[in-house]
Design a protein that fits this description.
The chain is 39% helix and 14% strand. It has one domain: Alpha-Beta Barrel (TIM Barrel), CATH 3.20.20.210. The protein is built from 14 helices and 16 strands. The strands form 4 sheets. It has a 7-stranded parallel β-sheet. A 4-stranded antiparallel β-sheet has the order 7-8-9-10, with no helix packed on it. It is an alpha/beta fold and 413 residues long. Strand 5 and strand 6 (97-101) form a beta hairpin.
């Protein structure tokens, strides 16, 4: 089987020659650049480290690493920023070297860190000295008190909603024919250049989108105490998404196998909001986005949603979700065997293959391999599984553990 055939068969709940493997197919299944530099040194690889996600400081795994770990999925974003001039030198927080995209041009905060600044001088992202990633520090709708104020934000909203908008690529304006044409042609060429399955990230966040615009605490407060205002914010997001989605699908739909959306609904211990609040305020908007994708795309719909989301899985299935990730099995109610038994006929699980919070960081290579084999025994029967660790590989993960994880996933250990 080719990688693309293997992934599609697994997502159809069919048998495969081995479980498909993902490493960096989207922005929550990859590796922090500092850990990637140590992995490269461990593997004696001499190549540039491309920091393609500057917020999380994630590296784009090279073709050599994908081949070594038998990876079957790639992010559509790999087809863009392919020229050396698309990147510039960047120093990672640990002092090691990397390359950042041309459009990421942070300024010094004069205290050893970095900050990103909007066109009018507003600082909207900070990476203080000693931090490992960029953090949002400006929420343009944080102080609104009425729906009429939403439209007054303009360029500020654009600076932060990029986190929730289509990622491949973030610097293209899909509302212009030039941007749409470049997206379509680059996607077509990239599809012909690889036999791996391709995932295209759309976003479509509502809970997260409101939190990007208003701040987490303020948006949760709105949902509980000012639902009309929260709905106005989410309707603003829905309007933005639906203005882009048809064009996005028309360009990438014929050439990719998976469309990825996201909305982090859970925490480690519980849902962020009650099931009733989800069903009243967010589910109807999810249904609009997800139904449109399912009706106008022949591939698979992938939802990234962290944390304890088991209570909402029946709702997510109802609105069209086919794949869930990261399958955060350390969160409350997310027991792997129970998830597979209860939802394995209706959902594909993408992740859950190794605990990144604990074992992958702190265990031995032998312990890591044992957990991977156990998770494959649970998730793989009957198809419907793509192997990946739970979320991104963190900066302090030993390279020996990464190698052990992927060797076990590929049946080599």
């Amino acid at each position: 089987m080719t990688s693309r055939q293997r992934v599609c068969a697994a997502l159809r709940h069919e048998g495969t020659d081995r479980p498909p493997i993902d490493f960096g197919g989207m922005r929550s299944t990859g590796i922090m650049a500092m850990a990637y530099n140590r992995l490269k040194a461990h593997l004696s690889l001499e190549e540039e480290t491309l920091v393609y996600d500057v917020v999380q400081q994630l590296a784009q795994p090279s073709d050599a690493v994908l081949d070594l770990f038998r990876v079957d999925v790639v992010d559509l974003g790999r087809g863009f920023l392919a020229r050396p001039e698309d990147w510039h030198d960047w120093t990672l927080p640990d002092g090691s070297r990397g390359k950042a995209p041309f459009y990421f041009r942070p300024e010094s905060d004069h205290h050893g860190g970095w900050q990103t600044i909007a066109w009018d001088g507003t600082v909207f992202g900070r990476m203080p000295a000693g931090a490992n990633h960029l953090s949002q520090c400006h929420w343009p709708l944080r102080h609104i008190t009425s729906p009429g104020q939403i439209g007054d934000i303009g360029e500020h909203a654009k600076q932060v909603t990029w986190m929730a908008l289509p990622s491949p690529p973030r610097h293209l304006d899909l509302m212009t024919e030039e941007g749409l044409s470049k997206l379509r042609e680059t996607t077509r060429r990239f599809s012909k250049s690889t036999d791996r399955a391709i995932m295209a990230a759309f976003g479509g966040n509502f809970l997260e989108g409101g939190q990007f615009l208003c701040g987490m605490a303020r948006f949760l407060e709105m949902l509980a105490a000012e639902p009309n205002l929260a709905e106005a914010v989410m309707d603003h997001l829905l309007e933005v998404y639906m203005s882009v989605l048809p064009r996005f699908l028309s360009a990438v739909g014929p050439y990719v196998q998976v469309i990825q959306v996201g909305d982090d609904l859970g925490t480690q211990a519980a849902l962020q909001i009650s099931p009733d609040m989800y069903r009243r305020l967010i589910k109807p908007r999810h249904r609009i986005i997800y139904s449109y994708i399912r009706e106008h795309f022949d591939g698979f719909l992938f939802l990234h949603s962290c944390g304890s989301i088991r209570q909402l899985l029946p709702d997510l299935i109802e609105v069209g979700v086919q794949i869930v990730n990261p399958v955060q099995t350390s969160a409350a109610g997310m027991d792997p065997a129970e998830l597979k038994r209860e939802f394995g006929r209706d959902l594909c699980f993408w992740g859950g293959g190794c605990e990144t919070q604990t074992l992958l960081r702190l265990g031995t290579p032998e312990q890591v391999a044992a957990q991977v084999r156990e998770r494959l025994r649970i998730f793989s029967p009957g198809g419907g599984y793509v192997f990946n660790q739970v979320h991104n590989v963190l900066s302090d993960v030993p390279p020996e553990n990464m190698v052990a994880m992927f060797q076990a996933a590929a049946g080599r250990a």
